[in-house]
């Protein structure tokens, strides 16, 4: 798609994201799976409909909008009582997990995807979020100990906020 305006990219990405979300619900998949596949399909390694240079002007707006939704939803669902009970375990998961994922994911995107370091680390920050959209459906469908359920749910809610902060920091660097 030559000469694509940022607004057109924003609208296309929004429509694809909504369609992927609907498909995920019908197929009972975590939404992140069709979102990722949609990006791959539309990108330079799929149908070549969008390229990073075309998406870059709309990228900041798309990411900021997505982060706002993630943080709002996380705040609505955070169970503070359960979090206080398992705070130390959740805290350790939050310190090590996202930073390691951001660094490893960023390094892999740089090495294998050919992205510049700022974009690669932004990618790493974004994939460090394994929050409610992935974890909560798994927790609901699996029988597990109540303590483990609270730990996973608490970490899932807070990882979004931490991932959002990492993504904002990396976004400012790009």
Chain-wise SSE layout:
Layout: H1 6-27, H2 32-42, H3 52-77, H4 80-85, H5 87-113, H6 117-127, H7 132-141, H8 146-173
Give an overview of the whole structure.
- By secondary structure, the protein is mainly α.
- The chain has two domains: 1-50; 64-173, no CATH class.
- Helices cover 81% and strands 0% of the residues.
- It contains eight helices and no strands.
Explain briefly what this protein structure is.
The chain is an all-alpha fold and 174 residues long.
Structural class: mainly alpha
Could you estimate the helical fraction of the residues in percent?
over 70%
Per DSSP, the total helix count is: 8
End-to-end separation in angstroms reads 23 Å
Number of strands: 0
**Integer-rounded radius of gyration:** 17 Å
Order of helices and strands: HHHHHHHH
Mean of residue pLDDT values: 80
The major beta sheet can be summarized as:
none
Low-confidence stretches: none
Structural domains: how many = 2
Strand content: under 5%
From the spread of the alpha carbons, the general shape counts as globular
Q: Regarding quaternary structure, how should these chains be classified?
A: single chain
Q: What characteristics describe this protein?
A:
174 residues; 2 domains; mainly alpha; globular
């Amino acid at each position: 798609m030559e000469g694509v305006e940022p607004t057109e990219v924003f609208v296309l990405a929004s429509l694809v994201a909504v369609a992927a979300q609907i498909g995920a619900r019908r197929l009972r998949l975590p939404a992140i799976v069709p979102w990722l596949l949609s990006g791959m399909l539309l990108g330079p390694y799929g149908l070549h409909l969008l390229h990073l240079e075309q998406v870059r002007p709309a990228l900041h707006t798309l990411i900021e909008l997505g982060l706002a939704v993630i943080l709002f939803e996380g705040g609505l669902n955070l169970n503070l009582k359960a979090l206080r009970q398992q705070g130390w375990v959740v805290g350790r998961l939050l310190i090590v997990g996202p930073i390691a994922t951001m660094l490893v994911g960023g390094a892999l995107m740089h090495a294998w995807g050919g992205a510049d370091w700022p974009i690669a680390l932004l990618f790493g920050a974004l994939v460090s979020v394994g929050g409610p959209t992935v974890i909560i459906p798994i927790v609901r469908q699996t029988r597990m100990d109540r303590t483990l359920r609270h730990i996973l749910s608490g970490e899932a809610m807070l990882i979004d906020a931490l991932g959002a902060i990492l993504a904002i920091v990396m976004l400012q660097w790009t």
